[in-house]
C-alpha cells in the first residue's frame, strides 16, 4: 500500500487556524490603514474647501469693500422667502447670490449703483438641501457633510459672535443633535480666546468627530494657526 507524504495530505487543523489568523491580522491592518487614509483625505478636502472659501471671501471684499455678513452683528441676512441666515448659511447666501453694489451718498443715503454675478460655485455635495423649500436657504458642508462655521470679525472683539449653539445652523434639532462649545470661547485648538483673525474672518469645521458627544478639538479644521491647516 502506497502512503502519501504529509505535504500531499493538505493543511492540518493547526496550520489552517494559523493561516486564518494571519489573514484576519493582515485584513485588520489593511482596514486601519484605509481608515487613516480616508480620514486624511477627508481632512484634506475640508481644508481645501476652507482655503477656497477664504479666496472667495477676499474677492467679495475686493468687490464690495466689506466681508460677507454673518447675520449675527446687527446686519440681518434674510432670503426673499423670509428665512433668517446665520454663520455659514449667511456666508453661503453671500457667495451664491448676485452682488449688489452700493455707494454712500453725501447726504448719507445708500444708493445701488450696479450688480455683479455671484462669485461662488459649489458642488451639490458641498451644500445642504434647501431649508423648508427655500432655495436660497442653504449652508456649506465640510467633507463629513456637517455645516461649516463662519464669523465676520472684521470689527475686532465687538464683532466676535460665539457660535456654541446649534441654532446658528439651518434645520438644527437639539433633541437629536449635539453641538459643542465654540472652540474660540474655550481656547481649545485656538491661538487664544476670542476672534482668531481680528479684522478679518474666522472659518472652521468641527472635523471628523464633529457634532457628537465624543467631539475632540484636536479634529478642528480652521483658517487660523491653532487648528489643522
Give an account of the 3D structure.
The chain contains three helices and five strands. With 229 residues, it is an alpha+beta fold. The protein has one domain (12-222). A three-stranded antiparallel sheet has the order 3-4-5. It has a two-stranded antiparallel ribbon with strand order 1-2. The termini are far apart. The model has no long low-confidence stretch (mean pLDDT 87).
Helix/sheet category: alpha+beta
Strand order of the largest sheet: 3-4-5
Q: Any low-confidence stretches, pLDDT <50, length ≥5?
A: none
Average pLDDT, all residues:
87
Order of helices and strands: HHEEEHEE
Extended strand count: 5
How far apart lie the N and C ends?
Answer: 74 Å
β-strand percent reads: 5-15%
Q: Shape from CA axes? A: elongated
Radius of gyration: 25 Å
The count of helical stretches stands at 3
- Please summarize the sheet with the most strands: 3 strands, antiparallel
The total number of structural domains is: 1
Helix content: 25-40%
Amino acid at each position: 500500500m502506497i502512503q502519501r507524504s504529509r505535504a500531499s495530505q493538505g493543511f492540518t487543523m493547526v496550520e489552517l487556524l494559523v493561516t486564518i489568523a494571519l489573514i484576519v491580522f493582515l485584513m485588520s491592518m489593511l482596514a486601519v490603514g484605509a481608515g487613516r487614509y480616508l480620514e486624511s483625505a477627508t481632512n484634506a478636502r475640508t481644508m481645501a474647501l476652507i482655503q477656497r472659501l477664504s479666496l472667495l471671501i477676499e474677492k467679495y471684499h475686493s468687490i464690495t469693500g466689506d466681508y460677507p455678513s454673518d447675520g449675527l452683528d446687527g446686519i440681518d441676512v434674510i432670503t426673499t422667502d423670509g428665512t433668517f441666515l446665520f454663520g455659514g448659511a449667511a456666508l453661503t447666501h453671500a457667495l451664491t447670490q448676485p452682488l449688489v453694489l452700493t455707494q454712500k451718498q453725501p447726504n448719507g443715503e445708500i444708493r445701488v449703483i450696479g450688480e455683479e454675478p455671484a462669485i461662488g460655485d459649489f458642488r451639490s455635495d458641498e451644500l445642504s438641501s434647501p431649508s423648508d423649500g427655500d432655495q436660497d436657504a442653504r449652508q456649506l458642508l465640510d467633507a463629513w457633510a456637517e455645516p461649516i462655521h463662519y464669523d465676520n470679525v472684521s470689527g475686532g472683539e465687538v464683532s466676535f459672535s460665539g457660535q456654541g449653539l446649534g441654532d446658528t445652523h439651518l434645520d438644527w434639532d437639539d433633541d437629536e443633535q449635539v453641538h459643542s462649545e465654540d472652540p474660540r470661547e474655550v481656547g481649545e485648538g485656538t491661538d487664544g480666546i476670542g476672534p482668531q483673525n481680528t479684522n478679518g474672518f474666522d472659518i472652521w469645521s468641527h472635523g471628523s468627530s464633529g457634532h457628537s458627544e465624543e467631539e475632540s478639538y484636536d479634529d478642528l479644521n480652521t483658517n487660523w494657526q491653532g487648528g489643522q491647516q
